[in-house]
Amino acid sequence: MTGNLAHLTLAFGLLGNIISFLVFLAPIPTFYKVYKKKSTQGFQSAPYVVGLFSAMLWIYYALLKTNVMLLITINSVGCFIETLYICFFLFYAPKKARMESLKLIGLLIVVGFGLIVLLTQLLASGGTRTVIVGWICLVFSLCVFVAPMGVVRQVIKTKSVEYMPILLSFALTISAVMWFFYGLLLADFNIAIPNVLGFTFGILQMILYFVYKNKKPLTNENILTLEAKISQKEEQKIPEHKDQKTVDILKLENLINSDILPVVAKSNKIVAVEPQAPLYVPHHTIEVAA
Questions:
Q1: Are 27 and 110 in contact (CB under 8 A)?
Q2: SS3 162
Q3: Which of 13, 88, 201, 207 lies in disulfide reach of 70, CB 3.0 to 4.6 Å?
Q4: How far apart are CA 143 and CA 48, in angstroms?
Q5: Tens digits of per-residue pLDDT, 74-131?
Q6: So what's the pLDDT on residue 226?
Q7: 111 DSSP assignment
Q8: Helix crossing, 113-123 with 126-146: angle to 10°?
Q9: Among candidates 21, 40, 15, 34, which has minimal Cα distance to 81?
Q10: β-bridge mates for residue 264, sequence order
């Protein structure tokens, strides 16, 4: 019985390695599109930075655990591939996106991972250190699966699946199944539990893909046109108000500066009055009743 479990564990571990390797290769079409357009456009670096951080943590955990060699093999490959993706992203990203990515790299890879290794080496020992690192790995594995949720939000907002690679979603779902059984057979719940969430999110992304893949994308021009129409309708609802004081002042000014000859009614006769010098109005404030 123990021999069968060992064989099953090895089988799921090898399958997990193979499928995880395909997961790491899944973004290649995305980066090929970036290369063709010479711009990262709406793509984000966060999933790749978090993926690199998670792979480094799993290597550290596997070195402490000693009996999960298959974690070391795949995560070593993952570190290499994720580093290539990040370098590629930084090369084609605009200045603002590049700076945000560098800040994230500094925060997670340099500061975050460095502090975890330093503190666990100084403040914990033996099995306690392994347990602590295992919990940290669990949390950040969840972050790896949650990272693409930003893309999910963009898909729902724009009704376009352009920035959600379906190959990655499918590969993550199958990979989550393999690693769940690998962790379950090893009785290592730090490996098994995150992959339950990974499977759930993978299914969600694939559902969204098939829902929105034939939808007409909502572009920026559509959004601006819609906002303009809404603004126009709101303006039509506002009643027109006239400032009576302003109108009266303008009428008085026109009367004062008028060159028209005034007409005086006298004894039922119309008498034209000779033009006179322009009326001098002292510079006093004229108050007009509302």
A1: no
A2: coil
A3: 13
A4: 11
A5: 999 999 999 999 999 998 888 888 898 899 999 989 999 999 999 999 998 888 999 9
A6: 53
A7: I
A8: 160
A9: 21
A10: 271
Residue appearing with tokens 């997990």: 16
- Say which amino acid occupies 182: Y
Q: What length does the chain have? A: 290
Q: Which amino acid is at 121?
A: Q
CA distance 269 to 290: 35
Angle at CA of residue 259, ends 258 and 264, nearest 5°? 90
Compute the distance between CA of residue 153 and CA of residue 46 in angstroms, rounded to an integer: 14
Secondary structure (DSSP) of 103-114: HHHIIIIIIIHH
Q: Give pLDDT tens digits for 209-250.
A: 888 877 665 555 555 565 566 666 655 654 444 445 554 555
pLDDT confidence of 257, banded at 50, 70, 90?
Answer: low
| Closest by CA position to 219, among listed 166, 149, 157 | 157
Q: Is the pTM of this model over 0.70?
A: no
Phi, psi for 241 (deg, rounded to 5): -120, 135
